[in-house]
Amino acid sequence: MTTIAADSFTYDKTRHVYRLNGQRLLHTTEVLQDVGHIDPTYYTEESRERGRVVHEVTAHLDRGGGLKWDTLHVELQGFVESWLRLRDELRPTRFLAIEHPIYHPLYLYGTTPDRVLLWEGRTWVWEFKTVKAGHAPYWTKWQTAAQDMALGPCISGLPRLRAAVELYHDGAKARLVPHNGPDHFNDGLEYLAFLSTTRSRRTHGISHPASDE
């Protein structure tokens, strides 16, 4: 009798590195940056830290945890308040996954949906963006598409719905920006084209992983 070992999937949160059976996987933001959709200057040290803390705090709250507001930097409190205002208004039926790393078993990329949830009778994938000015970046639609594909078929048999969630620094109620309808039918195919392009660029030495990965 032959024994087949289960795949070993790991995610190093500090270095933002996904591995499957020891092999490093590409991830969604890495691909979008490699093909030129994400300006490398978008992720400043300040924005990375802001996003990290806000994601951790909102995830903790959505898992039922509490928060002592005086322990959270005043500059970040508005983003959290923004999310809570939207969450309390929409009242999601249930969070199915909160900041849970996954990978696509065929296309071999890693990704972490911020929220997978039931709301108004449908399953959604939501990607949080902290917004100090303007709106969530246009390329968020490809993030949610990649996450949707990696999650596999929806149990309900209906397609998942996708959206960006804009969190505002002044505490104003967050805004849902849907990635559904005809304008978004090809988001998944476009992301796979970007993924293939990045792989070709890496194969031919045109681009390389970040040195700390």
Mind telling me the CATH class? Alpha Beta
Total helical elements: 5
Structural class: alpha+beta
Radius of gyration from the alpha-carbon trace, in angstroms = 18 Å
Assign a percent range to the helix content.
25-40%
The amount of beta strand, in percent, is: 15-25%
List low-pLDDT spans.
none
CATH topology: Lambda Exonuclease, Chain A
Task: Quote the distance from N terminus to C terminus.
Answer: 38 Å
- Second rung of CATH, namely the architecture: Alpha-Beta Complex
Q: Order the strands across the largest sheet as they lie in space.
A: 1-2-3-6-5
Total DSSP E strands: 10
Average pLDDT, all residues: 93
Looking at the structure, what is the overall shape? globular
The total domain count is 1
SSE string, helix = H, strand = E?
EEEHHHEEEEEHEEH
Report the major sheet.
5 strands, mixed
What does this structure look like?
- The protein has a single domain (9-203), classed as Alpha-Beta Complex (Lambda Exonuclease, Chain A).
- 33% of the residues lie in helices and 23% in strands.
- The strands form 2 sheets. Strands 1-2-3-6-5 form a 5-stranded mixed sheet.
- By secondary structure, it is α+β, with helices and mostly antiparallel strands.
- The model has no long low-confidence stretch (mean pLDDT 93).
- The chain starts with 8 loop residues before the first strand and ends in a 10-residue tail after the last helix.
- It has helices spanning 28-34, 45-62, 74-90, 140-151, 187-203, and strands spanning 9-12, 17-20, 23-27, 94-98, 102-103, 109-111, 115-119, 122-131, 161-168, 175-178.
